[in-house]
Amino acid sequence: MASEVAPFIKTGGLADVAGALPKALKEQHVDVRVVLPEYSQIPSQFLSRLEHLGYFYINVSWRREYVGINRLKLEGITYYFIDNKTLFHRETLYENSDRALQFTYFSRAVLAMLKKIDFKPKVIHCNDWQTGLIPFYLKEEFSHDPFYASIKTLFTIHNLQYQGQFSKDILEDVMGVSKEFNVEIMGDHVNFMRLGILYADKVTTVSPTYAQEILTPYYGEGLEAILTRRYTELVGIINGIDTVDFNPETDKELYKQFTTTSLSFREENKKKLQENLGLTQDATRPMIALITRLADQKGLDLVQHVFSEMMHLGVQVVLLGSGDSKYVEFFQRMQHYYPHQFSLSMKFDAELAKQIYAGCDFFLMPSRFEPCGLGQLLAMRYGAIPIVRETGGLCDTVFAYQDDTTLGNGFTFKNYNAHDMLYTIERAVHYYRTYPDIIDRLRKRGLESDFSWTRSAQTYRLIYEKL
Ligand code: ADP
After folding, report:
1. Is 243 buried (19+), middle (13-18) or exposed (0-12) by CB count in 10 A?
2. Of 15, 191, 212, 442, which residue is most buried, by most CB within 10 angstroms?
3. What ligand 1 atom has the least distance to the C-alpha of 159?
4. Residue of 241, 374, 397 to test ligand 1 pocket, by largest number of atoms within 8 Å of CB
């Protein structure tokens, strides 16, 4: 179960995972099916191919809600779309004032659907707060029915910052649960993420380092005590990427395809990108890219703090992303000051993202926290060298280049500090200008790494089997 799944609907890394993991599981002979809400934003090329399986009604507290079940089989995977136009035909995915209702409905609809279509999974794999009520309703209500009694749940935390927190008013009004329900479990607020963590049979998150970090107050977002309680059931499994969709050898979106043995072709992508983005066309200028949500998590205040120093290094900076207005305003101003050195594209554009990964020299992720991070993996897949802060999944996938051993695949810094970041960027630029052979070696190392889902999918399968 996931609230976003590539290629249908995507706001971030969760969609990538929910899109790619099922395919990797299928390779390992797991019968995997994916359920998601039928948003109006899903491209019509998919919506027009949905097969209507039927409909029924469910109770959501005092409401009676329609549940349409539509199915699409794509590349060997079966997807079920939960259709309710009142709840899912909206301007935004998660910003709605009745989102508690949207995802309470989704959880109940998904559980009820299983019996209607007579598909009894051995495990329901839930992802993030939007599906946190599935383990809760399964244990508290549905498991009284023998059909559901043996189903186990796995809950995966993709980002602990977004928890789905609501006032207790929704207990009776939306969730259909008594106000007197166990206070120790419920806490001061209703928190969908907390319920998912407490009720699931197993909890995972998306990197081993993040699994450790979230047990501490700095990273735990107020749930560290609950997570510590479930410590023995908490495992970190690193995400992979879809190596078929993201392949520099075959990608149609690139100006020029390339491999490790034709790395010089990569430069064509950089030149064309400079031209398209209105930057000075100069292959020797180090180009640093960021492709990201403009949110506090992503360390953009560090970039803000030393932006002019970065510009003084003579680098070009390319930023693709949208989000918080405080960052938008700052970067718009910077674009005005440095029109040929800094490019800002404020949109979500998967095609441009690939062109940037394939054209930039360095990919910057100075995150405050990062559960796994896909940007650094995609960057390496396309031969860009990551510059990252050592946190979460960045710590598990990017290793600082060491002069003495020549090991490593990128540049890293430890403290959340703008000048530590700047120093690391300076170091990377120094290598770029002085030791092109080392830069080439790092690029190749990235290109040749295995970021496929195979190994992680095996770990998930083992967890399913154990459950
Ligand atoms: P998060 O899930 O926290 O946003 P991740 O690094 O895990 O961060 O995943 C982000 C994903 O979204 C990557 O695939 C990245 O390429 C993509 N992405 C982020 N912003 C944009 C954008 N503006 N346009 C295109 N793709 C984007």
Report:
1. middle
2. 442
3. 3
4. 374
Q: Which amino acids bring their CB within 6 angstroms of ligand 1? A: 12-13, 16, 291-293, 320-322, 348-350, 353, 372-375, 378
Mean pLDDT by 10 residues, the chain (467 residues): 96 91 95 98 98 98 98 96 98 94 98 97 98 98 98 97 96 95 90 97 97 97 96 94 92 96 94 97 96 96 98 98 96 97 96 98 98 96 98 97 95 98 98 97 95 93 97
Q: Which residue type is seen at 365?
A: M
Length of the chain equals 467
Residues of 316-329 as b/e, b for ≥16 C-beta within 10 angstroms? Answer: bbbbbbbbeeebee
Q: Quick one: residue 159, left, alpha or beta (phi over 0 = left, psi -120 to 50 = alpha)?
A: beta
* Closest residue CA from atom 15 of ligand 1: 375
Testing ligand 1's pocket by substitution, the residue of 21, 156, 242, 292 carrying the most ligand atoms inside 8 A of its CB is 292
291 beta partners: 320
CA of 351 to the centre of ligand 1 (A): 12
Element containing residue 140 per DSSP (H, E)? helix 133-140
